[in-house]
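Backbone-to-sequence.
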């Protein structure tokens, strides 16, 4: 049911993107094209160079984290339009750039992208699981470039409390409790990892790093090592030099 609903809303979004001349999701000025971005915003995204980021303070267990750019400007606007306003056509340009981040973060070889899972509520509010869709697009882009790339979903998200009023320690604890392993999916992922496939956790924005650390911890608990996390954007003050 959920999958069917998500497919329908994907189809609907694609139709809306085609029929309505959407304004650019990155700058709101020019008419959008190429997945909903104007030529200037496409060029700005293409010019961004992935770099390592380190949240301060760095949560324990955070894997090496590489981001395309700071969470600002047209990238921030495009991410918000994609996940909060159902502009699914942006999965194209954003997913392709996520593939660039993965390619910059690990040496070429077989990879499985593990999207940070969305809660059922978030999926409903956001017209489908936005990170799963981005991860699939990124895996396809990597495959076109000759990589052996796929998507694995060995975790699911539990409903979580509103974290706005939590202290940073409580937030870390809440993040750790937010994900559970899906037993039925572990065997295939474990077999792939034993066969030399690397796991890359992917997400849209890194802020405190608590979510990525929690995902890595859950996977480690199942003896699955996460090499690196690849994200589109990092909140600005946390972007550091390589
Ligand atoms: Zn634009």
């Amino acid at each position: 049911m959920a999958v069917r609903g998500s497919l329908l809303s994907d189809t609907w979004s694609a139709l809306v993107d085609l029929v309505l001349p959407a304004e650019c999701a990155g700058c709101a000025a020019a008419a959008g094209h190429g997945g909903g971005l104007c030529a200037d915003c496409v060029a700005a995204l293409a010019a961004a160079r992935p770099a390592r980021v380190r949240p301060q303070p760095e949560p324990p267990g955070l894997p090496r984290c590489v981001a395309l750019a700071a969470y600002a400007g047209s990238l921030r606007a495009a991410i918000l339009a994609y996940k909060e306003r159902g502009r699914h056509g942006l999965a194209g340009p954003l997913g392709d750039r996520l593939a660039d981040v993965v390619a910059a973060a690990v040496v070429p070889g077989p990879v499985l992208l593990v999207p940070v899972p969305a809660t059922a509520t978030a999926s409903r509010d956001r017209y489908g699981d936005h990170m799963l869709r981005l991860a699939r697009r990124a895996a396809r882009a990597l495959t076109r470039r000759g990589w052996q790339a796929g998507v694995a979903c060995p975790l699911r998200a539990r409903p979580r409390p509103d974290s706005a009023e939590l202290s940073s320690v409580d937030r870390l604890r809440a993040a750790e409790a937010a994900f559970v392993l899906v037993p039925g999916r572990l065997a295939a992922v474990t077999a792939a990892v034993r066969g030399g496939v690397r796991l890359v956790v992917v997400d849209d924005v890194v802020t405190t790093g608590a979510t990525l650390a929690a995902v890595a911890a859950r996977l480690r608990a199942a003896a699955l090592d996460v090499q690196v996390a690849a994200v589109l954007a990092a909140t600005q003050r946390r972007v550091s030099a390589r």
